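quick one, 534 residues, struct below
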Amino acid sequence: LGCGHSPGRGSSRSNPKDLVRLSDQNRVRSATTNTHYLTVVVSIMLFSKLSVATAAAVVLAANAQSDGNPHGWDRSRRCDHTDYSPACGACEGYGGIPTGDANDEITLTTCEIVAQPKEIDPSTLIKPIWGSKWTVPRYYEVLIGPKNDPFCFQVIPSNSSEGDLCYKADYGAQYYDMEEAGSLAIELNAKSIVGNVTTSILHGGENFWIVNEYPWYAFGVHQCICTNVREGGAAGEEFMYPIMYNWTDQMSFIGRELIGIEYVDETRVLDHWAFGPHHAWSDPETGATIRMWQPYNGLQIFPNGTMADVPPPADKFVGPPDLCKAGGATFRIKCDDDGYPTGETSEEPQAELGRDADRAHQFVPGDDYRGDSFAEMSAVLNGWIDEMAVESRPCESFNVTELRQLQALLYLARDVRLDDIYQTNGDNRRIRHSMEQLEKDWAELDSSIEGHDEAHPIHAMHRDGHCHEAVMWYVHHLTKDVRELFAVTGIEIPMLSPKRHSCPTDATDGHAKVCQAYEEQVTCASCHSKTLAV
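---
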């Protein structure tokens, strides 16, 4: 991310000649940062603020590694070109497809040494070529960064591996032009617990736009985030521009290897290069950059390299995107009417909870919200749901996967101040588990259900419990303004099932576990039913 002049707000373009004038220091910064920062924030919180700050540099002297290698990764997963003793060699630090922080939570690729540096004439070596203007129609990556939210939506690679990390796989296309446009455009597709999210990113000059299209439940709703990338993510620091094509100049040759290429199921002889914790593998004949790995930033696979075989379409670099302008996306964050970043750098103060707080402190609902039985309670509350602006449909029309995706969205959109009230008062409306624990519980329930035929009542109980819990979260954990946002998007919430499920005395172990979860999910009956749920 080389620093340059400020090219002006009237265009997404910068002056490539000026951007080429990088000092050695800036080229080092470019290489160190690499391109993984680009896949920032696929935040499903429709009203969230974007943070592009990266973690501050951590300089620790332990085990001769800059951050102490806190996760204890072995030399296959991590071997930095600097600060390692003995020095990193061929078929070390090659990595693979990671899924977690533990050393064994990775599928390492294969690696065989073909030649050591001393066995190859240095004059024949071609450093990895990034290219100054190219199209990559398909690339794959696993983005790694500090864990900032339960679902790893906001994954921003850091310059330290400390703490819990997120591992987010995605794929897409990249378009790069540092000859004329001075821009990088990325189109991404990422799967998540809340469904499939597609993202378009344009980094032109100092301007950075992210356009998200949300999954099934949002009916194609778009969000645009307009921002600037700054040195270290700090307000007032210099603007950061798209990575320069000469960032690979700082890399050193490690060896020639026969290495497995993830996602494309190929094994190829490639040259291994490194700079600090960054590793790149390139074609010995052409210099095409095929594979990149940084143990706490991520894995990137460019099957055909980043070269000029296919010139990028000029329209990929036109900014601001129309969806970022007034009248464009449903949600526009830090964008002015023309679609440029407003320059906001501080968070707005949280609004007062007002009536939402009063409702949270009210233990027993009014008679208008209660029924004489479980079925009547459900009918009364469904009547109120029907009068809300949000779309709704019968519980039985949802499946469990859809309900969990909706709950994940509700969990992110909740106002934690409301749950603080419920937790303090021991209120049944409190969220009883972290999202991480809920995910584990859901996986255990799925295992418990296996082996029960489709007609077994365990399936309806399982689904109906999620419907009750989702409605409770929507009504009691979202503030009024957020509920109004949901209504605008066309998001649908379930109605309550009127059936009160019970657990038979001869229930299987799996059925019994689902029964226990169901009882926790229908706690609304303890307040909204005039008789205790039995």
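The first strand starts at residue 96 and ends at 98.
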